[in-house]
Design a protein that fits this description.
The protein is of the alpha+beta class and 378 residues long. Among the domains are: 78 residues; 147 residues, 3-layer Sandwich (Rieske Iron-sulfur Protein). The chain is 37% helix and 14% strand. The strands form 3 sheets. Strands 3, 4, 5, 6, 7, 12, 13 and 14 form an 8-stranded antiparallel sheet that branches. Strands 8-9-10-11 form a 4-stranded antiparallel sheet, with no helix packed on it. Helix 2 crosses helix 5, helix 3 runs parallel beside helix 6 and helix 4 runs antiparallel to helix 6. The longest helix is centred in the N-terminal third of the chain and has 33 residues. The radius of gyration is 34 Å and the shape is elongated. The model has no long low-confidence stretch (mean pLDDT 88). The structure holds FE2/S2 (inorganic) cluster. FE2/S2 (inorganic) cluster binds next to loops.
Length: 378
């Protein structure tokens, strides 16, 4: 039932002498709130049911802690380097992303379930009726609402539930640690430890494995072992082909051949410009000899967020990225001319092998492919 008669206001002395409980009820009355029900969820302290409820909440926080730590462990120690299907270690590698999602998801879920259960089991389920009113809050109102909040804290009994406090701190802490590792993991794992190898962000699978090795351009026929090299006669003027690196030393090596086709920074598009367009080409400083006649090879990895820039429009000589519609001008060293990308597509230096008549890469890209990263200067 709601009361409509405002209560008598206490003097300053009376206010100072009031207990928390009195202030709570007075505050309710001043706001025209009637507390209809305010039951203590555990009127008899220390019962087995209460202890069971406490352990249940603690269990969820412990699950949060375990999964948060598991997330950090997976992020740091699980094998995450790309492994091609049908090769050793692929199964473990394929579990990496699902495990990250499952452990972090379970950690967040468990903290949420623990908090919900605590609210359900230990916070009094108050039923109150309040009349609406206008205007700001007086000092009296502020004092009473503070008392109300403090009362809720005391009645929630959190102060004396050290098991829940400890496990909640552990669960939330481990989850926070997992998220922190996620954010700073790149620094913990030192991505630059192998900056000179083909597996760092600075290099791709086009990097020759030894001095003088020729890395040829091959197309993907669907069968890794069917090696189809690409030469100038394979492209018509205005044509484009996607190519991948191939080394003679890997001709019979199924694992290496599949890896070269699947590695994410390997795909390159080789474009043969029409002769009338080729005359208008503007080359990038220091990369004037990267093309072979009218043939230009650019990475297919978009410099915005790394999608494949798979579309080449012959009429306009634009290379398009379907993800966020960036466009690059193939006549001007693939510099971005529309959309969110701000860097040109990296150009692969190519030539034709006199012996075989096929294209090969004269070196790896001289700049990183794909999106920016902190240490990238170009
Ligand atoms: S990834 Fe290519 S435009 Fe965004």
């Amino acid at each position: 039932m709601s009361s409509t008669n405002p209560p008598e206001l206490p003097s300053d002395e009376e206010l100072a002498a009031m207990s928390r409980e009195d202030l709570v009820r007075l505050g309710g009355k001043l706001d025209e709130v009637d507390i209809v029900e305010y039951p203590d969820p555990w009127p008899v302290k220390g019962t087995r049911a209460e202890k069971r409820a406490e352990r249940l909440v603690a269990l969820w926080f412990l699950i949060a802690a375990a999964s948060g730590l598991a997330f950090a462990g997976v992020f740091l120690f699980w094998p995450s380097a790309y492994t091609a299907p049908d090769t050793d270690g692929y199964f473990m590698y394929s579990l990496y992303t699902p495990l990250l999602g499952a452990t972090l998801g379970l950690s967040v879920l468990s903290v949420g379930v623990g908090a919900l259960l605590y609210t359900k089991k230990f916070i009094p389920h108050e039923v109150s009726v309040q009349q609406r009113h206008d205007g700001g809050s007086a000092e009296l109102d502020k004092a009473t609402i503070l008392a109300h909040l403090a009362d809720a804290g005391v009645r929630s009994t959190i102060a004396r539930r050290s098991l829940i406090k400890r496990t909640a701190g552990l669960g939330a802490g481990a989850m926070g640690l997992g998220i922190g590792v996620f954010a700073l993991g790149g620094l913990v794992r030192d991505p630059w430890a192998q900056s000179d190898t083909e597996n760092s962000l600075w290099h791709t699978g086009w990097k020759p494995k030894h001095e003088g090795e020729k890395v040829f351009l091959r197309r993907d026929t669907g069968d890794p072992e069917e090696v189809a090299l690409v030469g100038p006669a394979d492209l018509d003027a205005g044509g484009m082909e996607t190519v991948f690196p191939f080394r003679e030393t890997e001709r019979k090596d199924h694992e290496a051949l599949s890896k070269a086709l699947k590695r994410s920074d390997n795909p390159v598009m080789i474009i043969r410009l029409r002769p009338e367009d080729a005359r208008r080409v503007v080359k990038h400083q220091g990369q004037e000899d990267f093309n072979f006649g009218d043939y230009y090879a650019y990475t297919k990895i978009c410099s915005h967020l790394g999608c494949p820039t798979s579309l080449y429009e012959q009429r306009t000589n634009r290379i398009l990225c379907p993800c966020h519609q960036s466009q690059f001008n193939a006549l001007e060293y693939a510099k971005p001319i529309f959309g969110p990308a701000t860097r040109k597509l990296a150009q692969l230096p190519i030539a034709v092998d006199e012996e075989t008549g096929y294209f090969y890469a004269r070196s790896d890209f001289i700049e990183p492919v794909g999106p920016a990263f902190w240490e990238r200067k170009s």
